[in-house]
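To fix ideas, we quote verbatim one protein's residues and C-alpha cells.
>
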Amino acid sequence: MSTAIELLKGSITRVSQTFVSIIVAFFMMPFLIHELGDYWYGIWTVVGSLAAAYHLFDMGMASAVTRYVSQSFGLKDNLQANVTINTALLIYSVIALVIVFVSVGASYGARAFIDDPDSKDIIQILVLIIGVSVALEFPFNALAGVASAKLKFHHVALTRIAMTLMGAALTWWFISEGYGIVALAIITFCTARISNLLYYFICRAAFPALKISHRLASRANSRELFHYSAWSFLIAIAYQMRNNVDNFVVAGFLSAASVTPYAIGLRLVDYVAEFLSQATNMFVPIFTGYHAREDSTELHNKLLFITRLNLVLALIAGGGLIIFGQAFINRWMGPNYTEAYWVMVILLVGRMIGFANHPLNSAMYAANKHSIVAKIDVIEVALNLAISLVLVQYLGLIGVALGTMIPLLLLRLFILPYFACRSIGLRTVNYYRCMARPILAVGLPLIVYSAWMTNRVKPDTYSDIILYGIAMSVLTAICALKHGFSKEEKRELRKIIPSRRLKVLI
C-alpha cells in the first residue's frame, strides 16, 4: 500500500478518534460539572494540569527516540533500532521512579494549599493516583517511533477510541452511583494501563524483531539521544506551560470555580486544534526523507502545500467555531457561561495561527534545527506568563486569554517564519505569498456567511447548529478546493481523494 494511502487511512482514523473524543466529552463535561460541582471539577482540572506538567520529565526524549528509530528503520538496521529502544527504556524507567517520588511529595504538599479540611485527603489521593499513572506510562515511550515509522497510525487510533469509550462508560456509571472524584481518578488510571499494553502489542506486531534486554542499552546511544532531546525538552517545557499555566493563574488570582468557564472555552479550542492536528500532523518522516536526500525543491513545495492545507482547515474550523460557538455553549452548558465564549474566541485566534504554520515546526525537526522552535517557544511562554499576570488583575478571564494569544500571534506569525525559512533556504516572501490564496478563497465566504447568519438566523438547537455548520463547511470547502490551491497542488489532492465525484470539485 502506498505511503499516501497509508497516511490518508491514518488521517481518517485519527480524525475519527478525535471526533469520538469530542462527542464523549460533549456529554461527559456537563455531566461531570453538574455531578461534581464547579469546585470539584475545577480541582480535577488543576490536578490534570499538574499531571500534564509531569510529562516535562520526558525531557524531549520521545522526539529523539522517534527520530532515531525512524532513521534506523529507513536504513533497515533492526539492531540499531533495538539499541535505541532499550537505551530509552532504561532512561524512562529511571524517570518513572523519579516521578513516583515527586508525586508522593506533591500529594503531601497539596494539603498546604487547601483550606477545607474535608478536601485535603481527597486531593492528596487524587494527586498521588494521577502522578503514579503518568509514571507508569513513561517506559512505553521507549517505543515511540515504532508505530509512526511503520505507519500504524490507524491501529493506535482505534485503540484510543476503544479506551475512550470504555473510560466514558465506566465514569458515567460510577459517578452516577455516587462514587465521586476518586473513582474518576481510578478509572483514568486503569484505562491508561490497558491502553499502554495494547500499544505495546501494536508495536510488537509492527516490529517483530523487537527485543527487550538491558544488554542492548548503550551509553553512547544515550548521549546521542540526550544531545538531540535537549532542544526538544525546552519545546516540551514551553508546550506544557503554555497549555497549563493559565489554569494556575486563574485559580491563584480568581478562584477554583473560575477555572471552569475558562476550561470550557479552552476545551473547545483544544478539541478543534486536536481534530486538525490529527488530520495533518504526520509529515516529519516525509520532510526528513527530503532533507536526507538534500531535495530542497521538493521540501519547499511540500511545505508550502501543507501550509496551505493547514490554513484552509484552520479557517474553516476556526471560523465555524466563532460563528456558532456562542449558540453551542448556551445549548451545551447553559446561559451562565457566556464569558467562556470570549475566552474561546481569543484563544482560538492564536491556536489557529499556530496550526497553520505548524509545517514549519515539522521542517525544523526534520532538518535537526528545532533549536529555533525551542528558543521562540521559551520567549512565548515567558511573555504569556508576564502578560497574563498583569491582565488578569484588570480583565479577569479575558486578560488571561489575551496573555496567551498576544505572544503566540506575534511570534508565530512573524518571528518563526522569518528564522525558519532562512534556515531551510526558503524565501520568506514565498512563504507569506502561499497564504494569500487560501485566505481569500475561504475568508471572503466566511465573512459573507457570518453576516448572513447574524442578520437572518439565530440557531438555538443542536440540529440548527449542525445543519448550518455543515452548510458553511461545504460552501467554504468548495471555494477552497476551487481557488485555494495551485494546479500542481490540485493534482496532489486528486491522488489521495478516492471518490471520483469529490475529484470533480477540485
Notes: The mean pLDDT is 85.
